[in-house]
Amino acid sequence: MRGMKHLLLLAVFVILARCQQKPQVSMSPTLKEIYSGDLFFLRCNNSASGSTVKWYFNDMEQTLTTETWKIGVATPKHSGSYQCESNGQKSDAFPIDVLDYAPIASLTIKTGQPVVRTEGSVVLQLDNEDGLKGWNCWFYQNGLTKMIKLRLAKDSVNVVFHSPKLTDPETIFWCSDTEKLRSNQIIVRISVKDISLEMYPLPAVVGESLTLKCLVWGTDQISRAVFYKDNKIILESPNPIYQIPNVTESAKGNYKCDATYTHKGSTAGPPYIRVSDVQDVFVQVPPMKAVLSANGGLSCSCPLCPGGSSYRWYHKTDGQLWALMDSRQGFMMPKASGTYACRAVWNTRRSLLSNGYVFSDQPPITSILIGGAVVPMILALAVAVGFYVCYRKRNTTAPIYEDIPLRSRDKGDDQYEKLQKGAQRGGEYDTLQPEAPGRQKKDGEYEALKKDEMTGGEYHTVRLAGAVGGEGGYEALKKEGMTGGEYHTVRIEGAVGGEGGYEALKKEGMTGGEYHTVKIEGAVRGEGGYEALKKEGMKEGVYHSLGMPGAGGGE
């Protein structure tokens, strides 16, 4: 009996001890370091079943009363001391320090969606620019943390692996080495419905864009989509995509969508209308982030990063992933077309990727258009100037040439007749009359003006005399009777058998200011030499010519 009583008393003491044991705060999954954007759970252990739990953050009581506190997206403001209270007992403080920068390695979804069907899976890729020696990956599902063994080649900087079958509403993936280095987290959710709300697997960031998609398994024939936030309609559209171009903290909330759709194999019947599961959208203030600027090249900076940081540059083309470049300086000159970004790196930590800059190694289309437009404009201007010059020449007020009237002959309309000798008018040009030896003059030929009919102030032409047996030379104007202010021409006389030389003007009667010509006398049996003006009687200001005796018996 006494033994039985001792056992009963022992059991009571154990129960009382458990009831009086202090609660403890624990974190799941267990993370050596917590980065901005991480998801984790805080639990109040040893709390009495069914008892009320109180939570304290930096000694301030919170409104939360459940045993588990979910931190959907960690930020530096979550850094501090956490406590829970159960049955009047408060736990010891549980410190948390959220780092305001990104982990050294990157984990991304290579194939698949952030929301999958139950027991579905995704393909993940891990990248670490400094190598993956000693790295493994982990996933947290159904309250348990399990390891994924990686198959790494020597000096690997990236690796691709499959996730296990997913059965938990929310599965957390991350990778780490044997030290404190690790990657970011990837969250994959499941849904048993035919329709799902897909969103980016990382938290939304203030100042950046967020895209939500309403997806239907097995078809893309969606005719209408409605998006809800906290059970209120925010968009109704035939486009199954909802985009927030500039995220603010007010974007945080519960989202879902419904869709009206058909399948390709459907030939009759009404379309389907289904509603997705609710998904939580968390918003975070961006941690340390590099800034890319373009000014004669590309510059990378990080004002909030520690001193002595180096920089790494990345490049990608459409549809491709970021590729690490060789440059480690804060300035670089882009060469290939594509999008460029950079980040700051120090010790085993780094900033977030900077804003992207799109570069093209082709000349801007505006320059091509401007260049193509300038050349035609210059050509058009040159043509216009040419037309203007021609127009000015044609429309000048002082005519340079005087048109000569033409009359058609009686042999045809396309024949023209030269001016008649008797049709001369004042101000017209006078022509020469070539007369061949031994032939009659015909109408339509040119006749030199007679020497004795010339009057002062007129222009006179040269008379040609026949070279043999007739008049064919130039006949100088008579020296007698010349008056001042007139221009006179030279008479040429035939070289053989007639007058064919130049005859100088007589020295008598010349007046100052007039121009006189040379008389040429025939070389054989006629006058053909040059005769100098007599030196006697020359007046000042008069030009005289030299006389040359003929070569063959003439003067």
Please give a structural write-up.
The protein has helices at residues 2-20, 365-394; strands at 24-28, 34-35, 40-45, 53-57, 60-61, 68-71, 80-86, 89-90, 94-96, 98-99, 106-111, 115-117, 123-127, 136-141, 144-148, 158-162, 170-176, 186-191, 195-198, 204-205, 210-216, 222-229, 232-237, 241-244, 253-261, 272-275, 279-281, 283-284, 291-294, 298-301, 310-316, 323-324, 331-332, 338-346, 349-350, 357-359, 407-408, 416-417. The chain has 555 residues and is mainly beta. The strands form eleven sheets. Strands 4, 5, 7, 8 and 9 form a five-stranded antiparallel β-sheet that branches. Strands 12-18-17-14-15 form a five-stranded mixed β-sheet, with no helix packed on it. The longest helix has 30 residues, at 365-394. The protein starts with a helix and ends in a 138-residue tail after the last strand. The model is unreliable at 398-409, 416-442 and 444-555 (pLDDT under 50).
For the structure shown, list the relevant keywords.
mainly beta, 2 helices, 555 residues, globular, 5-stranded antiparallel β-sheet, 38 strands, disordered C terminus, 5-stranded mixed β-sheet, 30% strand
